[in-house]
Amino acid sequence: MSDAAQPTAAEVRAAAEAVKTALDRHLAAVERRSGEDDPAVYEAFNQLAAAAEAYDELLYDRYDEVTPFEIPGTDESLPPYAGPEEPNALSVLIRRDYAVVEPQRLLAQAERVEAAEYEDGAGADASGTVHGALGVLFGEFEPDEIASRHKEFGLEEGDSTLWVTAADEPADPGEWLEAPFEQIDPQRVICRFDVSAVFDDEDTEDAEDGADDDDLEDDLDLDGDEDEELEPLDADR
Question: What global pTM score does this model have?
Answer without folding.
Answer: 0.52
